[in-house]
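Handout, section B. The chain below has 320 residues.
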Amino acid sequence: MMTRRNSENRRKSGNSSSRYHLLELNVRTASLKRQRRHKAGGMLWKAGATVVVVALFAVGSRLAAQKFFFQNTEYALHHLEARLDGVMTQEELVSLTGFGEGKNLFELDLDQANRKLAALPEVRSVTLERLLPDTIRVKIERRIPVFLFAGPGDAGESFVSGKSFLCDRDGFLMQPSRLDPEFLNLPVLRGVDPGAAPPGSWLENERLAFAIRLQQALSEIPEENFKIRSMDVSKEYAAVVTDSSNARYTFGNNDLPSQFERLRKLLAHCQETGRQIETANLMVTRNTPVTFVLTPEHGSPKISPVANGNTSSSKKSARR
């Protein structure tokens, strides 16, 4: 009997202990849930407070900016300092960019204006500055054209607005819509098709690259001694340059320094003797073939050799 009672007491004691532990676990779980809800509520409150503070700060900043900057008459545009390098007039600049007098400096979109100006084929670089309180400074560097392209089969040497192609020393194509007096004095280039690339892009062409190198080198000679009128690079191995006196010079695409040295000696010889060259093949390294225009003052087909003694001449009829 005692054994049975002891067993029942142990079972009752075990059940009580299990109920106690279960109750303790439930209490701990409820406590953890309350703590989590409290933390979550605190985080939500902090986040909400932060959002409210940020919103109030943004509204306050906007109102302050409107009052002190965007609606402040001290920051109205009154001075437009423009160095346009002949690309456009100041009226055209205002029309394109919106830089009208009286507009607020902070409302003007300089990035958009920069993109519009840089997109013009004649523009090489653009600099825009906002100078407080009332000034916008614009500086444009234009592309300097070095050639006027002659169209296929075109013998003309005149510029036609909106139709003629020009290129600068980088081979960048332009098709200006208006005449600049400078365009009338550009050398005409033949043998390169500008239609291979659209205006406002670079024309990658070996003959054009050779023509530009040759033009840059010849431009170092004073214009009173040598000025290019046209250049024909239709032949792959040579370029024929015609100067302002209609003399024709043939240059090869190799060893340009030696050819320029022979040209300088020929020009020096002409200055000393008063003779005028009609043709010269500077590709030939020895006994350079040269023909001269015969005049009453220089009727003999024979001439004295130049300093290096390797220039020959042939007889030509006198020009009237």
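Note. Residues 2-70 form the longest helix (69 residues). Compare this with the example in section A.
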